[in-house]
Amino acid sequence: MTEKLLPITYNEMLEAGFDQPDFVVVGGDAYVDHPSFGTAVIARIIDALGFNVCVLPQPKFNNCEDFKRFGKPKYGFLIGSGNVDSMVTHYTVAKKRRDTDDYSAGGKQGKRPDRAVTVYTQLAKQAYPDLPVIIGGIEASLRRFAHYDYWSDSVMPSVLLDSGADLLSFGMSERQTAEIVQRLAKGEDIKTMHDIPGTCWLGHQWELPTGYAECASFKKVSEDKISYSKATKVQMENQDHINGKVVVQKQTNDLYLVQNKPAKPLYRKELDALFALPFTRTYPKIYDEEGGLNSIQEVSFSIIHNRGCFGGCNFCAITMHQGRFVTSRSHESVLAEAEKIAASPDFKGYIHDVGGPTADFRIPSCKKQVKEGLCPDRKCLAPTPCPHLQVDHSDYLELLRKIRAVKGVKRVFVRSGLRYDYIMHDKDDSFFKELVQHHVSGQLKVAPEHFAPKTLECMGKPALGLYDKFQNKFYQITKKIGKEQYLVPYLMSSHPGSTLKDAVLLAEYLAKHKIRPEQVQDFYPTPGTVSTSMYYTGLDPFTLKPVYVAKTSQEKATQRALLQYYNPKNSQVVREALKQVHREDLIPVLVGSKKTKSEIAYAASNPKRKNVPVKNWQEVQRQNQKNAKGKR
């Protein structure tokens, strides 16, 4: 197959040899013909099936004229917002408008609307009211049920209802897309396609299938937080393609959202075939006139070798989108891509990443999962690993060795989400040793996310002790091979479950280990995660137990400041936080021993309190336990 960009203008369509598209794929990002971009993947799938397809990237949204760019499509539109939810693309966690958009040429903001899926669908319907519209991608997928919307601070109905689309394709969508477009081409009415796995549709009560799981209605979840929590549990427990049920949720007085069973993931041969499609791995040259595209920089010399993640972190959307079932590409497929990258004239010899959602997952979590599906009531790795968990890095290690041997490749790095707990549960140290020796570019980034027990529990992350062991082992290996390399932990502030005391514990741990995070991520309540449900309801959806949530901007800022305790501009905030939780003993540890006037006055008014400087984190813990026993 000839590698050529798909048409994005009317003239390019004519040059491609057709004067009417069968389908138009609409995306909120600038067009990048690369397998890391959902718009390109869906367009290439349709193209490979023999249909005439055009791509409409970032259409103007003040009217519907841009949706008529290619004339009337023969069969319909497929619409997504891009690789990221449009609201996340536009706004920071503080709800401030971002200055740049890496998915737009020149990083310019304003190229797509807020809630792009809804706006684009309505414009497509205005342009051609009789044409089917199928929505998909991350924004549609994670908003398929009634959901808490952080930006409006309200519960919204399914995006399928709000947008007016005919069908919603959730997850990665390749299977669904292929079936939908072929059935449309055969003349089937989109409104009768109620049997396709991996899709959602709206219907009346008499149309509902048998054997479904029902969650509380939009009206009820928008009024009652316990109902919202219970609905979250039902939705999360039915996202497995083997044992998941059809899920139903009432949206209006007479319309129900029906989520069919999730689609089967693409297996190895199918993933290989997908990545063998004629992606050009570039973008239209017209974008260079506007400053080029930042979004392609990280992926140009990176390789995706797997899909899915059984890690099950509560703040991650993978469970509701890609799913927890892991599949991976063959060595031959990955090596063919590595050789193609190495042959690129711009390649400098460095593969930036060989990863995916979690880089070191190549196989499903256990053998039972392959036949019976994932356990709906427990996680595979946290808080402790399941006894049936398969921990094996041998295949991944062999793959990395082969890529290192490709002609023209100097170094191969791994940067995308290694699970340190999975590495530590491997009885063989071979992978860890070679990772540190060959695949770290000076800094290895891993994600413990927090160091307070209750917060880690709410995150669905493993207990703290394992990270300590990982850290020690990393530096032992690094020292042995004579390299200067560092471990960089990803950390999150203000996650549900994190009280001010927990934030102080986190700062205490960082100080003990001389960790000074330059970048701190605040928890961002995006649709479709367990953590967002906790944020909105203040409840754990699986137990209905209360969960503490930091919601005020002041408390969020304080928790964030504690993570960067070493920054002089945070000193006063850190001091006040320590006083608030009665941890003045940590003031010399976190901000220095010099006391302010207010601290001197506080000590004078509390003569019985011992503000004794402590040397390390363990000593602080012992002192706390001693104080607690004294109170009892």
Structural class: alpha/beta
* Strand coverage percent: 5-15%
Helix content: 25-40%
CATH C-level of the largest domain: Alpha Beta
Major sheet: 9 strands, mixed
The appropriate CATH architecture of the largest domain is 3-Layer(aba) Sandwich
For this structure, the CATH topology of the largest domain is: Rossmann fold
Shape category = globular
How many helical elements? 24
Taken together, the total number of domains comes to: 3
Number of strands: 20
User: Which sequence of strands runs across the widest sheet?
Assistant: 2-1-3-4-7-8-11-10-9
Radius of gyration over alpha carbons? 26 Å
Mean pLDDT: 92
Write the layout of secondary structure elements.
Elements: H1 10-15, E1 23-27, H2 38-48, E2 53-57, E3 76-79, H3 86-90, H4 116-127, E4 133-135, H5 137-142, E5 147-149, E6 154-156, H6 159-163, E7 167-169, H7 174-185, E8 199-203, E9 213-215, H8 218-223, H9 225-236, E10 247-250, E11 256-259, H10 268-275, E12 302-304, E13 306-307, E14 327-328, H11 331-342, E15 350-351, E16 353-355, H12 367-372, H13 394-404, E17 411-412, H14 420-424, H15 430-438, E18 443-449, H16 453-459, H17 464-480, E19 486-493, H18 500-512, E20 521-522, H19 530-537, H20 553-563, H21 571-580, H22 587-590, H23 597-605, H24 617-631
Parallel strand pairs: 1-2, 1-3, 3-4, 4-7, 9-10, 12-16, 15-17, 18-19, 19-20
Antiparallel strand pairs: 5-6, 7-8, 8-11, 10-11, 13-14
Helix pairs in contact: 2-7, 9-19, 18-20
